[in-house]
Write a structure and sequence with these properties.
The complex is a heterodimer of chains A (160) and B (248). Chain A is 19% helix and 29% strand. With 160 residues, chain A is an alpha+beta fold. In chain A, strands 1-2-3-5-4 form a five-stranded mixed beta barrel. In chain A, strand 1 and strand 2 form a beta hairpin. Chain A is globular and about 40 Å long. Chain B is 13% helix and 29% strand. In chain B, a hairpin with a 5-residue loop joins strand 10 and strand 11. By secondary structure, chain B is of the alpha+beta class. Classes of the chains: A alpha+beta (160), B alpha+beta (248). At the A-B interface, helix 2, strand 1, strand 3 and helix 3 of A face strand 9 and strand 11 of B.
């Protein structure tokens, strides 16, 4: 089941991260592509890498939350809460509630909270089988992958 | 012939109705003759018109509101808006969220289901007029008609709690929105939105949003309060709640 979901995720290479940042940065008065909240609490200049074990993956609106336990340099553990896009958005781009399961050892890249609290926006994650999922739309296909299956599936075409 | 007579009568009766042409979707039979708006539509993020035209031109009073907001944002005094607290965007922004919409025809009414914030709009196409003194709501009161293959929707009655576009752009309760829905190509819906507001804008402002069709999608539940950890305080500060309950 889980393998199937992950395979699907890989097939549906979708919007690349840069494209989505482009969307978020659109100065057009017309619409805020960001449905729900601003990114003011997140440090979007910093790509922080973490590695840890999944505690829980909350497949909930308005955001998914991935909770992972990260072992610190001194051996202590910190639970990080990582906000992702909604199940509605991600579910149409190859993710499912089973994309992460408790105990999975994952590597993630996040925008950390400015406050220093252990949380952030999930950008991408490497799953135990080595595949990668990208929060803003399906699986990571690298920089040039935006025109792949997912974009065709959404019919939108990623902006350049 | 009969239709012509009716058209002429309508011409005399009401300027808005004057432009009616073709099937109006007042019966199941005429609904069958309307353009196929079936499936879900998601706003596209590129590859076409989105917002074209110049930004809104505000009257001095509303330009000052925008400038005050922008200054406060730059100072860091305002970090986020009501949507972070799960308050729906209202019109017009609710139509361009990164979630699909579905457009349903029933006799005399078009219903738009909007996944974001689980909103809906009803557009009366049965010839009724707006209420004389409409209640002020997030999505307004909508009446519509068809001009050939274009659905024209006229909406009034907006609460001033919502934003015109981006945060800081305000409108008055006299805002008037006209939307023209038509299929630019078989799987591309374009909605041209013209906003008039004599109190807030020095002239009407127009944008066009494009939507891609997804026949195989179905609407998904969106209960914003389910696990909303983002928040905006009354004075505009943003925050996030990282409390975590261990699994029972």
């Amino acid at each position: 089941m889980r393998k199937t979901n992950r395979a699907r995720a890989l097939r549906h290479v979708s919007l690349v991260l840069g494209s989505v940042l482009g969307i978020l940065a659109l100065a057009a008065w017309t619409s805020s592509a960001e449905a729900h909240h601003s990114f003011s609490v997140f440090d979007m200049q910093t790509n922080k890498e973490l590695e840890g074990d999944v505690v829980e993956f909350q497949w909930t609106n308005p955001h998914t939350f991935l909770w992972i336990n990260v072992t610190n340099a001194d051996g202590s553990k910190t639970r990080w809460g990582l906000e992702g896009m909604s199940p509605n958005f991600l579910g149409r781009r190859g993710w499912s509630k089973n994309t992460f399961e408790p105990g999975d050892h994952v590597k993630v890249v996040i925008w950390p909270l400015k406050s220093g609290e252990p949380g952030g926006t999930l950008q991408r994650a490497t799953l135990p089988d080595g595949s990668e999922v990208v929060n803003f739309g399906g699986a990571g296909g690298g920089g040039g992958g935006g025109a792949g299956g997912g974009a065709a599936r959404t019919g939108s075409g990623a902006p350049q | 012939m009969l239709r012509h007579a009716w058209l002429i009568a309508a011409l005399v009766a009401a300027p808005l109705a004057a432009q009616k042409s073709g099937p109006q979707g007042d019966t199941w039979e005429t609904i069958a003759k309307l353009p196929d708006f079936g499936g879900l539509w998601e706003v596209t993020f590129g590859g076409g018109p989105r917002g074209g035209g110049e930004p809104p031109q505000f009257t001095p009073e509303y330009a000052a509101k925008l400038q005050a907001f922008q200054a406060a944002s730059q100072r860091g005094d305002i970090e986020d808006g009501p949507a972070a607290n799960c308050v729906p965007n209202g019109m017009p922004s609710i139509m361009t969220q990164p979630y699909p919409i579905e457009i349903l025809f029933t006799p005399g009414k078009v219903t738009i289901l909007i996944e974001a914030y689980a909103q809906w709009r009803q557009i009366f196409t049965d010839g009724r007029a707006h209420p004389e003194d409409p209640d002020l709501t997030f999505n307004g009161h909508s009446i519509g008609h068809w001009e050939g293959d274009t659905l024209v929707v006229d909406t009034v009655g907006f609460t001033t709690d919502t934003f015109l576009g981006n945060q800081g752009m305000r409108h008055s309760d006299k805002m008037h929105i006209v939307e023209r829905f038509h299929l630019a190509s078989p799987d591309r819906l374009e909605v041209q939105t013209t906003i008039t507001d004599a109190q807030a804008l020095t002239k009407p402002t127009t944008r066009t949003a494009a939507y891609g069709r997804h026949r195989d999608w179905t609407l998904a539940e969106y209960v914003c309060q389910q696990n909303n950890r983002n928040f905006t305080t009354d004075d505009g500060k943003a925050g996030i709640d990282l409390s975590f309950e261990e699994e029972k």
